[in-house]
Specification:
Elements: H1 21-33, H2 42-63
Length: 64
């Protein structure tokens, strides 16, 4: 989940706006935790998986 969809329990505002110190701290922590694939949509992740499986199948077919 991305921080732009989270609502702060302290001020009831979106965390992405950073209205209070709790929001700003949470926003910073979530930005640091995001990995390489965190910004990809589910459709992009499925597409990447299909491409990788296709490449693996092609590689397996060439070695046989």
């Amino acid at each position: 989940m991305t921080y732009d969809r989270l609502v702060c329990a302290n001020c009831a505002a979106p965390v992405s706006e950073g209205r209070c110190p709790v929001c700003r701290a949470s926003r910073e922590r979530l930005q640091q935790e995001q990995g390489v694939l965190a910004g990809l949509s589910p459709v992009a992740l499925v597409t990447l998986l299909v491409v990788m499986l296709g490449a693996l199948a092609l590689l397996a077919h060439q070695t046989v």
